[in-house]
Amino acid sequence: MSHIVCFDIGGTFIKYGVFDPKGNLLVKSKMATPTSHEIPDVLNNKVKLLQQDFHISAIGISSCGLVDREKGVILFSNNIKGYSGMKLGEILFSKTQIPVSVENDVKSACLGEMWQGAVKGKRNAVFLTLGTGIGSSIVMDGRIVNGSSGLAGELGHTVIVAGGKPCSCGRKGCLERYASTSAFVQDYKEQKGVAVEDVSGETIMKLVKQGDPVALLVYEQFIHYISMGLTNVIHLLNPEKIIIGGGITEGEGPLLQDINIQLRKEVMDVYGNEDTVIASSLGNDAGLYGACYLALNRMNMKESV
Ligand SMILES: [Zn+2]
Fold first, then answer.
1. Contact assessment for residue 122 and residue 114, using Cβ atoms and an 8 Å cutoff
2. Which CDD domains does its entry note (predicted)?
3. What is the distance in A from the centroid of ligand 1 to the CA of 256?
4. Total domains present in the chain
5. 269 CA → ligand 1 middle, Å
6. Distance, CA 212 to ligand 1 centroid (Å)?
7. Do residues 70 and 183 both lie within one domain?
8. In CATH, what number is assigned to the domain containing residue 83?
């Protein structure tokens, strides 16, 4: 039986796993992300090691940064120094002689959720990750929307506050300055007015649950802004579901439910009354599943979702 080895390359860790051709994840693990110029060798060594136990016939890569999927090139990454411009697909193929597919991590995670996860069988969905910024990917009629140069779906850089906070993209008032996890943490720190160390989205969510007044205030603003952004998405794209991932959504808590309640107030009634926002079901493995899906597709071992 042939197997597919998949890597999910992030700024801190590289997760990896081996799948069978039916998409069952057989083994998985992770390793620290090395410096950019070491990445191809580290991946090659891992493939060689896995070849002792598996017959590897394809490699799928889900990577942070902007990716040219056709050429397997990392166009831009601000997470890993020196990674921008790397012809990762070509370099890894030259070392392994195994076909390599490369795709952006948010798009991969979205495909994973379409193939085996929270929106399996759905044709229209939007996938969002809340973190330092907001990553997003759009699926319409069962296909990822790429746009003319692969850059469609930058929901984080749509303006929701005219003349608002300055954003890394050069504009003011972008959604990710108000509704990313880092914006949530920043707002909490500003509202607290004193130096707060070691605070994360998850710890603020715990304070919300405990009824902490500052955390609750910041949380209400956060729900307001993210719902405003998502209402725009719903009115524009009419997705069946919107999956929201990222550490802040993983713990127990009312976040997704509160967003759904707010959306019911903002979205036009004609769009229906069902909960649109749902949690990821593959969690941190979604990128690996998507990478496997693309690798299988590239080899014509799997028809489209
Ligand atoms: Zn922006």
1. yes
2. ASKHA_NBD_ROK_FnNanK-like
3. 24
4. 2
5. 30
6. 30
7. no
8. 3.30.420.40
